[in-house]
Amino acid sequence: MSLHPMFNVLTATCPSRTSLARIANKWTAMVVIALSDGRMRFGDLRTAVDGISGKVLTETLRDLERDGLVTRHVYGEMPPRVEYELTALGRTLHTPLLALGRWAEEHIEEVLAARETYDARS
To answer: What's the pTM?
Structure first.
């Protein structure tokens, strides 16, 4: 018998659902992709992830840190300097999230055409 229970994201009570929900969040995906090149300061991240508010970026980074995907480095300088970096676990998300981002870019014209067709029928 396994020491770990069987996890299934399709089961309502499975704790893996919270991880899937976090990963599927658009801001999470963009922050992970942005951090894939290495450590970044908050302001640089906010610039890299166009359209994210400071509040949402703060919440996203805290959630990612809580889940062990991002680490926060605080430097004892004045003014204080803080940098964020993917952990080893967070780096495992880079490839699948980058693939999803590429898929979105490569297929947006088809998606927009499908929406237009659907909306014309409605």
So the answer is: 0.83
